[in-house]
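User: Please predict the structure of the protein below. I'd like the answer in structure-token form so I can feed it into my own downstream comparison script.

Assistant: Understood. Taking the following sequence of 628 residues as input:
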Amino acid sequence: MKGISVRLKEELNRTLHAHTVYAETLFKIHSFYDNGLTLHDIGEKAYKLRQRAFSGQDLEALLPEVYALTAQASALTLGLKPHDCQLLAAIALHEGYIIQMQTGEGKTLSAVFPAILNALTGRGVHILTFNDYLAKRDAEWMLPLYKSLGLSVGYISESMGHMERKRAYYADVTYVSAKEAGFDYLRDFLSLEKERVVLRGLNYAIVDEADSLMIDEARIPLVISGRFDEVQNCAIKADGVMRRFRRGTHFDEDQYANILYITDAGYAFAESVLGIPSLFEKENTLYLVALHASLTAHHLLKRDKNYIVRQDRIEIIDEFTGRVALRRLYPDSVQAAVEIKEGLKPQNLGRIMGRIAIQHFLSLYEKLGGMTGTAKSASFEFKELYKKSVMEIEPHKPSQRTDHPDRIFCTLKEKEQAILDEILRIHQKGQPVLIGTGCIEEFEELSSKLRERGVACEVLNARHDDEEAHIIAEAGKPFKVTVSTNMAGRGVDIRLGGSSEAQKEQVMASGGLYILGTRRYESVRIDDQLKGRAGRQGEPGESQFFVSLEDELIVKYNIPQKKACQPSYRQQENIEPFSRLKRSSASLGQGGEITDKRAYKELKLLQKHIEGYYSDVRMQLIRYSVIL
């Protein structure tokens, strides 16, 4: 390690206190740095490295030299000098880890290092993003760096034709959403002509937002179907029956209202309306399937929460991001049932010609790594589903964000008033506010009330995803109020001061970006993603969540909110969360706010319980899908 000073060694050792396994590799990378290199020199060195990779030299042996050259090329082409935490992440990604890095720590740049190293073999690398917007943004952003090293880069978007896709996949590095790559795999599988095949093999992939794609969406199947018009009549008749169904008489639900089932009375009623002797006869199978699909469409899926209607099409809203999930369809006739429910002509009544779950598609890659800001809580599932370990990368600069304890209220009305008061308070002192809401309905109501009080606000939701980049770029400006569904939680970077560096100091002095969550989500990871928009790279920031005992999260999981708000009642054992809190006049603050500190603990326990429940559901579904 001849070219490394004692001072640099001390700094590196501090960085490596949690990752001593990579100490030697990081020292080697620094030993290859040559500050006198020009872009021409970098291009020549990159060509020689590629020749060595083509000749079969081990990539691990090439890694220190390739990473050092990439770091210098990044500084010259992008003005970004990677710090050691980014290099640690890059080493771990090459070795197939799932890395956890905080927001603003530079995951996008970290992914470029292993992508370049593995692309030297000429076999192609995929960086799997969360959506088309991120694929295009990251590919265009990193293009100068790849070009300086003699590598080509492409990206895939939904609107691309066959030849454009083929060219993008034959680039050295391809940025593509996981779903688009999965659909292209299915189309290739069904292709009868070699010329129509666009993929050239599944070599190495880096999954961005890995916890969402690899865990939350692992069981969601990607489906290609062909037309099958015979079922349309059954679907329309089933919709007519369902409009006459009554909850508790013709159908019922499980304890968490996640699963609906038709009662004996419901089957008898449907048979009577349809004029058939039995739904369970072989010739009536299509009616039975259509009836269950219609039940889901009418009583489980809600407009402006689970989906929106845009340009006479049903567009599904991703529950974890709030964005429209392009090309996603509800499975097993449910899509057609939703279309009929909304008075649209059903477009997706067809025979399934090919399907694959995200988990199974990702497992086809020879080598796989992933990165996200919230992986640690899902480490068990990463191990079980993918045999992958999670590595937490320490931030380059310690977080300065202040996470305030949740404010919990008895009623929804009291919570909403407190939220408005808090937004006005923060806005008046010039601090930018990002408000994360749970659904479009809540979002629109809140933004309307803010405008009534004279507070101008930007909107960011599934209806305005095409304007996302501009809105996000300005969300950190002084006095800015941005109301969002949780789509702001993934893959975005809000800079203090917005596009104006001059205003950054003003925002930092006011306390940085203020994150306000109007509810807690079923997954702590979604909450953490929202909080992570503030406090990037050691900057100041704040987060505050508001909860009411009438929130869907608490009502859905049968927490008796009315009893919890009574001034006093007998304390009981072995009953559900919140209801065991002993209330007194001192435990309720102004405006119905619950001040008993045990309420915060109960809320955390509730979320852990729900996460455990969904983790079990996912694991069971994956096991069944393996059998199928």
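That's the full token string. The first strand starts at residue 98 and ends at 100.
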